[in-house]
Amino acid sequence: MKFRRDLREKPENREAGTMFVNANLNHGVWFVVAPYAPMHQTLISALAASLILDWDSRKEEFILLRGFPNFTARSGCYDRLHPFRRSPTMIETSAHAALTSEQISNLTRQNNYGTWRFQKAWKPLYIADAEGCWFIDGAGKRYLDFSSQLMCVNLGHKNPRVVEAIAEQARELCYVAPGYATASRARLSAKLLEVLPEGLNKFFFATSGTEANEAAFKIARMFTGKNKIISRYRSYHGSTMGSIAATGDPRRWAMEPAGKGAGVAFAPETNCYDCPIRHTYPTCNIACADYIEHMIRNESDVAAIILEPVVGTNGVLVPPPEYFPRLREICDRHGVLMIADEVMAGWGRTGKWFSVDNWNVKPDILVTAKGITSAYVPLGLCATTTKIADYFEDHYFSHGHTYEAHPLTLGPAVVTIEEMQRLKLVERAAELEPYVRQKLEALKAKHVSIGDVRGLGLFFAVEIVKNRKTKQLFNTMRDKVEGKPLVVDQIAAKMMAQDVSIQAWVSHFVIAPPLIVTKEELDLGIAALDEHLAIADALVEA
Ligand SMILES: Cc1ncc(COP(=O)(O)O)c(C=O)c1O
Question: Probe ligand 1: pick from 343, 373, 401, max atoms within 8 Å of CB?
Fold first, then answer.
């Protein structure tokens, strides 16, 4: 089926056997020719209004990106779809009723909370579709997803096998209470043993990283009979009471004093670029790790320490190689459990299956979510050792949710892991690391506003500063929670206008594209950052 552009100008071109509907395209309303089918005319008219088309300038015709499936099938249009979007929906429901982009945005904004923000300025962009490393808005504009949404779509969008696994699981079994065994639960349990650090073999499935961390805290407290949790200031562990209390970053502040939560003590993070205790690596002999031992001795009653092995949102902080082995020794010496929060840094992001694998350290509890299903369905995992598991053989496991081990989340996770293996994405992240590092180092050499570039695999931060010598930032964490305009946000907005979406936090950008990203796509994203860093360069102190 061809959508001919000239029809708008020449409605007399209407042919017998066709009907005309209006479709909202990139730049206004266009006439679209559709096969005439009297019996289905009303239906077609309604659904065609939600067609999404793209102009193929090479062939001088529109191509259909999304629309009513029978409509496209009847016209034999699947072959003509954009090469990376051949996934027809089988049944349209009222959830797909035609709404304009503006209506969708307004209804969302009026009736939903925008998270972690003042509500007034929230104007959510309507995203209609996504595939590979790109997502597409209601007007058909495509954006390079340079941070994999929230550093979670590691496989890229709409991997056809995972999409099919979701449908397959829905056909097989949508829900059964967590007390039952299911095939997908068994398959995922076996699959996880292939990729998790050795020794982690008892699982609690939740529906988010937050919930998985809550489970970890309760398990650690029940198992050790102790109460306190040590966390670090530059950290994020989740949004509910226990996990926000263990979160060091300013998202905790708005909740205080309630969010403070009894029993959490904060340690300094490892940040060799801007050390919070003003030491210099390696002469410091990683005093930050030793200080944690000091805390354990003085706090007493410490059940666990929770760490993002590579700190995510708070700066992609990579510890020196001795840090984790030293902490492991400290934990063992004091009977304190080590909880590795791999919600963001796991699933190939750092060039290993899990970021602790970079130092061959075995945590007692590993928590993850996000990349476990490439975020297609909401799944969190809390994995523990046999030693912890054995304790609960004759002690009450006092934890659970209705949606625990939800079948719809587990089947797709099996296929996500299979796809990561088939496409060798963990290896790919490791292979692309030097390419990205070299490109970002080149940016640093060019832009006076870049203070530091750091990362592993396909997980990098570019930190901007007002003054390279003093490392003074353009904005503070307080600015962030008070909703003040941030320099990083200005730059991110310019990049978005140029079709590159990037996550920014206080003073750095997080570069974490889907692991299927090509070098050309990496070049594109970095070029956009390069262009707009001029904003920060101009604000640098002379
Ligand atoms: C390291 C870390 N832990 C926990 C969480 C919370 O996960 P969720 O948002 O799935 O609840 C996040 C979310 O970004 C995270 O990055």
Answer: 343
